[in-house]
Design a protein that fits this description.
With 157 residues, the protein is of the alpha+beta class. The protein is 41% helix and 13% strand. The chain contains five helices and four strands. The chain has a two-stranded antiparallel sheet with strand order 1-2. Strands 3-4 form a two-stranded parallel ribbon.
């Protein structure tokens, strides 16, 4: 590789892991891996724009990335309470999904999902209340936030 920069790309499921090394990070690399035409399920990733430009699949954010981001947000005293509680909620939701799968279910039931979403929404509202109006989702250069937590899928990372 003689000093050139290459990107490591990973695609995995419960049985297989594909590791690829590519000189590009963007859609060219993802396309060259030739996995997407066969992909079924939820694409769990960070917020890198390339992944979110892929249509026709369900997307979810990586819990590890979310927890790291929330830990960073929690360093600000104004955000510590809601950010720590959101991190706890996301881990609790992941654990609940895993327990449901171990119990032979496909995921969370409607009641469980409703409870997690309700708590999630309340925490989002608390977080938004600490942010100046000019930085709220839906304002200039912002996009609305949607609830991905506790989706009820067994796919967790």
């Amino acid at each position: 590789m003689s000093g050139a920069v290459y990107w490591a790309h990973v695609a995995s499921n419960d049985l297989l892991t594909l590791l690829d090394c590519h000189e590009h990070r963007g859609i060219d690399a993802v396309t060259d891996m030739a996995v997407l035409p066969f992909f079924k399920g939820v694409l769990v990733s960070d917020r890198y724009r390339t992944y979110w430009s892929i249509d026709g699949i369900t997307h979810a954010l990586c819990l590890s990335h979310l927890l790291r981001d929330l830990a960073s947000v929690a360093t600000s005293p104004a955000h510590r309470d809601w950010a720590d509680k959101m991190a706890d909620l996301l881990v609790e939701a992941k654990d609940a999904v895993e327990a449901a799968v171990v119990a032979g279910r496909d995921g969370l039931n409607t009641r469980e999902l409703r409870l997690f979403r309700s708590r999630y929404t309340r925490l989002l509202e608390r977080g938004f209340s600490t942010v100046p109006a000019r930085h709220q989702p839906g304002t200039a250069n912002r996009t609305p936030t949607t609830c991905c937590a506790a989706s009820g899928t067994a796919a967790t990372k």
